[in-house]
Amino acid sequence: MTMKTLFLCGLIALVSGSVQAQSVEETLTKMGITLIAPTKPTANYVKAVRTGNLLFLAGHVCTRADGSGIMGKLGKDLTIEQGYEAARLTGISLLSTLKAELGNLDRVRRVVKVTGFVNSAPDFGDQPKVINGCSDLLVAAFGEKGKHARSAVGMGALPQNYAVEIEIVVEIE
Length: 173
Known about the structure:
Layout: H1 3-16, H2 24-30, E1 48-51, E2 54-61, H3 80-102, E3 108-119, H4 127-142, E4 149-155, E5 164-172
Parallel strand pairs: 3-4
Antiparallel strand pairs: 1-2, 2-5, 3-5
Helix pairs in contact: 3-4
């Protein structure tokens, strides 16, 4: 086959719908990521609130599937790399809640905003490098739709001494 024929066959397949983009969950599986059962709220709040086509997720902390978490202050107890992993785990927790709320992660039209809180020693100033653990995961999972506005701030303390807490806002179909 000539290049022109291959191109035309690909274009026809794309237009006819026989070539489908990879789903977000397939992307996560290829990345070796397994979503976890969302945790229950620990106080008087809900994990997600929808208004119009926006879904606001409450702050999530860095917990593993076994329920354990990453605790401590960045710049004192934990390195930037450990903080990055904490933010990545928090991102998996957020995706797990999104999946539970929406039934299908492909319903996410756009990740709009990420707000990251980092349990920081007073002289620690690399909060953006830590929250990149979540941001990088969202962009890897959703592609261009995962690029978002963001805040990454240091906190004197977080609940139960977790290293990271993150909340997100997504636009949904």
